[in-house]
């Protein structure tokens, strides 16, 4: 566990494993430890870089509102700070799928491949004009002591809602056996989610969601993906035909391989860490 300063903001980073570099970036409101179930499957074969975006996990608050280009540059700067100047596979979950794709478009020489894990999809985003309401709401909720009182409980409810029922059958054996996922340390959850910093970070990133999505749509028109870049869309349809259609459409648009990770909720890395690892390991290395 270490901290690196990017754009004047201390970022919490965890690096482990060996081999080609793979960046793991989690979705809105998630932390580095949400990738824990994936680590035993990948660390013997990849150098894993997990980090918290500003206002998430243990990283400091954001200095500026997030943008697609800013998040792409953040990944590049993080790799530079860690001394990894070659290409890397970037795994983006949920909203971080936007960031991973933007990274490949804006830093094509640094992208070895993409794995989009139940990525956010927006065909017609509606950007918010201002983040002021989110900042006001954050100030009010923090002044009321909500993060300290309810933060960990809300986090627990959100995780339960986004994962499949424990004990659900798994389809087939894990091709690369490893330890099963362990429960997240409650003390770690309290340390992160009792803070006003994280609540404010979540609200700010959520307020900028539409703007980041719109920026990515523009990048698709202006900055093509590198020719031959391996891309996998790993989706969790979870019984929603509409979501599956949208994920398949994303795969077609990106020229990506589509794979359904079932049974799984939105937090595929917790429900099907084996599927995430397989999607990474099956990508050809340049």
Describe the structure.
The protein has 286 residues and is α/β, with parallel strands linked by helices. The chain contains eleven helices and eight strands. Strands 1-2-4-3-5-6-7-8 form an eight-stranded mixed beta sheet, sandwiched between helices. A hairpin with a 2-residue loop joins β1 (2-6) and β2 (9-17). α5 (146-161) packs across α6 (186-193). The two termini are 29 Å apart.
- Can you write the helix and strand succession as a string? EEEHEHEHEHHHHHEHEHH
What form results from the Cα inertia axes?
globular
Over the alpha carbons, how many angstroms does the gyration radius reach?
18 Å
Helix content: 40-55%
Spatial separation of the terminal alpha carbons: 29 Å
Main β sheet profile? 8 strands, mixed
Overall residue-averaged pLDDT value: 91
Oligomer: single chain
Low-confidence stretches: 166-181
What structural category arises from helix and sheet content?
A: alpha/beta
Number of strands: 8
Strand order of the largest sheet: 1-2-4-3-5-6-7-8
């Amino acid at each position: 566990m270490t901290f690196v300063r990017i754009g004047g903001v201390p970022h919490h980073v965890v690096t482990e494993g060996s081999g080609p570099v793979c960046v793991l970036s989690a979705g809105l409101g998630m932390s580095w430890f949400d990738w824990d179930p994936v680590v035993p499957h990948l660390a013997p074969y990849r150098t894993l870089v997990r980090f918290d975006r500003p206002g998430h996990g243990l990283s400091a608050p954001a200095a500026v509102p997030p943008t697609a280009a800013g998040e792409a540059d953040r990944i590049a700067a993080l790799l530079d700070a860690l001394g990894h100047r070659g290409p890397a596979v970037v795994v983006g979950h949920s909203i971080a799928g936007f960031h991973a794709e933007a990274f490949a478009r804006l830093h094509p020489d640094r992208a070895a491949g993409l794995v989009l894990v139940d990525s956010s999809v927006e065909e017609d985003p509606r950007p918010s004009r201002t983040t002021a309401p989110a900042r006001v709401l954050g100030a009010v909720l923090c002044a009321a002591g909500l993060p300290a009182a309810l933060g960990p409980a809300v986090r627990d409810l959100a995780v339960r809602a986004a994962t499949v029922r424990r004990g659900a059958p798994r389809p087939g054996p894990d091709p690369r056996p490893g330890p099963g996922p362990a429960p997240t340390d409650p003390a770690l959850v309290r340390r992160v989610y009792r803070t006003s910093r994280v609540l404010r970070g979540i609200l700010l990133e959520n307020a900028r969601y539409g703007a980041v999505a719109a920026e990515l749509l523009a990048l698709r028109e202006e900055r093509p993906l590198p020719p031959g870049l391996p891309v996998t869309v790993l989706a969790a349809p979870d019984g929603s035909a509409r979501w599956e259609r949208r994920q398949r459409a994303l795969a077609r648009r990106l020229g990506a391989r589509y794979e359904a990770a079932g049974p799984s909720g939105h937090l595929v890395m917790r429900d099907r860490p084996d599927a995430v690892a397989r999607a990474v390991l099956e990508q050809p290395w340049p």
